[in-house]
């Protein structure tokens, strides 16, 4: 019971009490404390006896454990002594083995020292024997007569050949000749054997023969034969570059199994492919068009150079020695150097003629003879005068609505230049790249910006009629719209294709300045043309007002029989203005729209303001003027310019002075919209009333 785990004293006492008669309420019997006490005393005595017995057992076990521990310690000491003796014996044995090994090595060295001279003597004796056969002129040894022993014969003849070179010619000329002849014959036989083995695909035999030939002068010829046979049947397709890559891939796997210097052999194969196959192929393709077709020549040059460099990148995967990058670069340069030296001159020449042809073809399609804009002298003087005065110098040219700007022409010019930039990037030497790219950019500026856009602007400026022309057709905004689109395309090509080529060179600032100058020059002409176009618009409005506005509109004969809401002149002017506003929005973008519309709105307001100042107004005429201005203000809302709308709001408030009762004039003039205006302006509008000279009105306004 006591050995059971875990032991709980309370549970043990409970069980003891429960088993004792009278110790609990079991079966309804009465509780007997004396009996329970007696049972507890007896049980305590039993526990004390049990404790003494267990204690004696524990002491006995402790004595036994101490005895066994002493015996184990004694045994461990004995084992340690045995181990020390064994280790000492092992050290003695190791020293003895080292001593014996030293003796054996020394004996081996002595034997080798004796055997090596003996072997050399035996070999020298054999060589002397074979040398005597050459002296006698008759080769009797089996090694020379048995074709299966060609490897041994090659080794012997190679050594004899080296010995013969040291002998004096006058005494041994004949034998030297015979040895040289045999040397040559064996060399030819080995090369022939290598060739046959290569055709049969016997790699092991090729490796064996190549190892023998390695010490012969004709080893390089063996490599040449291998390279030649590798290329047999390898270039049967039209794509010589793909064929070359496949051939090198195949040879790369095989060459290491045949030759002891595979990287040299593979490099020689690649050199042969470049200097023979590729050079011939490139020359045929380029010389065909070099003098007759510059476009095809440049396309072929770019294509061939690209495919050659791509092939070079694939070959970089192979082991070609230490500096394979330089090796492959020299091979490429050897093929293309004669074509790359004057590449940029051909490129510029082609780009110039091609761009001129694109422009001429466009002008021919329009049946237009291009005018000479001219530079220097009188032309420069005219230009300065025009910029300062904005006056049209010279007769106006009727362009019949033609802008002389073509998106198709622009796309063609940009496409040609894009291809030129791509070729320049690929074909130019890195040191010449920024300079060459700048020359191509200069061509683009000359033909796109100067010869096409600038010419169209000059022609457009010359086509703008004078401000007093009647029914003038204004096409310059179409020029602005197309020029805007072209500028975006031009700027995109500048950033996408030119910037990467010049970004890290001094040419960057030069290109940016050139671009800035040409754009500023064109913006001056665009601003000038827009300004003159706005003048023409105002001139057209003035013609409409002059032709349609009648004095009786604002001073009708019958004040009680006015049936119209606004005058015919107002209707036509508003219709014209709305068309021009829409045209300006379609022709421009960004802040330029607001700038031009603001300028037009201000001039439109000034025109209406000055126009209204020309008439006298009765009460009903004043109401009609207010209606007209309200319509003009509604038209001004289309501008979506706060200043313009504010100007017409103020003008509308001024027109109220034409109809307000004399007693209310001062109140109206001090209103929010008119309070800040100059008193002379207010007075000038009041003076337009037909009743201005009446004493009552003059008294109220004084």
Q: Could you say which overall geometry the principal axes of the C-alpha atoms support?
A: flat
The low-pLDDT segments are: 375-384, 390-395
Secondary structure: number of strands: 0
Overall mean pLDDT: 82
Helices, by number, come to: 24
Distance between the termini: 134 Å
Describe the biggest sheet?
A: none
Strand content: under 5%
Structural class: mainly alpha
Give the H and E element order.
Answer: HHHHHHHHHHHHHHHHHHHHHHHH
Helix content: over 70%
Q: Could you tell me the radius of gyration in angstroms?
A: 57 Å
- What's the quaternary structure here? single chain
Protein name: Exocyst complex component 5
InterPro entries: Sec10-like, Sec10_HB, Sec10_N
Keywords: Coiled coil, Exocytosis, Transport
Domain Exocyst complex component Sec10 N-terminal: 33-141
Entry keywords:
single chain; 702 residues; mainly alpha; 24 helices; 0% strand
Structure, explained:
The chain is mainly alpha-helical and 702 residues long. It is built from 24 helices and no strands. Helix 17 packs parallel to helix 19. It is flat and about 150 Å long. The N and C termini lie far apart (134 Å). InterPro entries: Sec10-like (IPR009976), Sec10_HB (IPR048627), Sec10_N (IPR048625). It holds the Pfam family Sec10_N.
Short description:
Helices cover 75% and strands 0% of the residues. The chain contains 24 helices and no strands.
How are the SSEs placed, and which strands pair?
Elements: H1 9-19, H2 33-136, H3 142-145, H4 150-166, H5 169-200, H6 203-213, H7 219-230, H8 240-258, H9 262-287, H10 294-315, H11 324-340, H12 343-365, H13 378-389, H14 407-427, H15 433-463, H16 476-502, H17 507-548, H18 568-587, H19 591-612, H20 619-637, H21 642-655, H22 665-669, H23 679-686, H24 695-701
Helix pairs in contact: 4-5, 5-6, 5-7, 8-9, 8-10, 9-10, 9-11, 10-11, 12-14, 12-15, 14-15, 14-16, 15-16, 15-17, 16-17, 16-18, 17-18, 17-19, 18-20, 19-21, 20-21
Keywords: Coiled coil, Exocytosis, Transport
Protein name: Exocyst complex component 5
Domain Exocyst complex component Sec10-like alpha-helical bundle: 152-701
């Amino acid at each position: 019971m006591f050995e059971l785990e875990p032991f709980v004293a309370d549970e043990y006492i409970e069980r003891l009490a429960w088993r004792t008669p009278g110790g609990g309420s079991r079966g309804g019997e009465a509780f007997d404390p004396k009996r329970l006490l007696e049972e507890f005393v007896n049980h305590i005595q039993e526990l004390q006896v049990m404790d003494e017995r267990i204690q004696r057992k524990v002491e006995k076990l402790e004595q036994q454990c101490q005895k066994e521990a002493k015996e184990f310690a004694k045994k461990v000491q004995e084992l340690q002594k045995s181990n020390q003796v064994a280790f000492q014996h092992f050290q003695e044995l190791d020293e003895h083995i080292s001593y014996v090994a030293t003796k054996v090595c020394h004996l081996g060295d002595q034997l080798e020292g004796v055997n090596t001279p003996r072997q050399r003597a035996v070999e020298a004796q054999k060589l002397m024997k074979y040398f005597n056969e050459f002296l006698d002129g008759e080769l009797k040894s089996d090694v020379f007569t048995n074709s299966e022993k060609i490897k041994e014969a090659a080794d012997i003849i190679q050594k004899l050949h080296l010995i013969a070179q040291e002998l004096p010619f006058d005494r041994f000329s004949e034998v030297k000749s015979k040895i040289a002849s045999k040397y040559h014959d064996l060399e030819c036989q080995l090369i022939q054997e290598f060739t046959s083995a290569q055709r049969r695909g016997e790699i092991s035999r090729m490796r064996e023969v190549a190892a023998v030939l390695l010490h012969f002068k004709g080893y390089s010829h063996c490599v040449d034969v291998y390279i030649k046979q590798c290329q047999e049947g390898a270039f049967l397709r039209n794509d010589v570059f793909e064929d070359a890559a496949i051939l090198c891939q195949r040879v790369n796997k095989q060459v290491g199994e045949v030759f002891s210097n595979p990287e040299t052999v593979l490099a020689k194969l690649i050199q042969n492919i470049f200097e023979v196959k590729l050079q011939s192929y490139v020359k045929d393709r380029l010389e065909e068009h070099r003098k007759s077709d510059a476009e095809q020549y440049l396309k072929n040059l770019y294509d061939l150079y690209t495919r050659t460099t791509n092939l070079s990148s694939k070959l970089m995967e192979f082991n070609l020695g230490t500096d394979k990058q330089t090796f492959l670069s020299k091979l490429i340069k050897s093929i293309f150097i004669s074509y790359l030296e004057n590449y940029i001159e051909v490129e510029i020449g082609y780009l110039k003629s091609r761009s001129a042809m694109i422009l001429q073809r466009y002008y021919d399609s329009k049946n237009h003879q291009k005018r000479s804009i001219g530079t220097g002298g009188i032309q420069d003087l005219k230009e300065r005068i025009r910029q300062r005065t904005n006056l049209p110098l010279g007769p106006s040219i009727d362009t019949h609505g033609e802008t002389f700007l073509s998106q198709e022409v622009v796309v063609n010019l940009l496409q040609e230049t894009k291809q030129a930039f791509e070729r320049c990037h690929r074909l130019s030497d890195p040191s010449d790249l920024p300079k060459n790219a700048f020359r191509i950019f200069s061509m683009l500026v000359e033909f796109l910006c100067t010869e096409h856009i600038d010419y169209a602007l000059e022609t457009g400026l010359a086509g703008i009629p004078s401000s007093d022309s009647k029914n003038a057709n204004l096409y310059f905004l179409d020029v602005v719209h197309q020029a805007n689109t072209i500028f975006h395309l031009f700027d995109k090509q500048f950033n996408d294709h030119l910037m990467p080529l010049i970004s890290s060179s001094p040419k960057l600032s030069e290109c940016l300045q050139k671009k800035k100058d040409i754009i500023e020059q064109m913006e001056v002409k665009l601003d000038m043309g827009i300004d003159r176009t706005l003048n023409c618009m105002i001139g057209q409005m003035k013609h409409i007002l002059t032709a349609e506005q009648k004095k009786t509109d604002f001073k009708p004969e019958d004040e009680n029989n006015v049936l119209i809401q606004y005058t015919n002149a107002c209707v036509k002017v508003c219709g014209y203005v709305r068309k021009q506003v829409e045209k300006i929005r379609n022709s421009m973008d960004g802040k330029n729209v607001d700038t031009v519309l603001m300028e037009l709105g201000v001039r439109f307001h000034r025109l209406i303001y000055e126009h209204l100042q020309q008439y006298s107004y009765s009460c009903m005429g004043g109401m009609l003027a207010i209606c007209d201005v309200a319509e003009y203000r509604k038209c001004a809302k289309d501008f979506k310019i706060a200043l313009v709308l504010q100007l017409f709001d103020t003008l509308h408030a001024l027109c109220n002075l034409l109809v307000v009762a004399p007693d209310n004039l001062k109140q109206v003039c001090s209103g929010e919209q008119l309070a800040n205006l100059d008193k002379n302006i207010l007075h000038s509008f009041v003076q337009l009333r037909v009743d201005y000279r009446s004493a009552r009105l003059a008294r109220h306004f004084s």
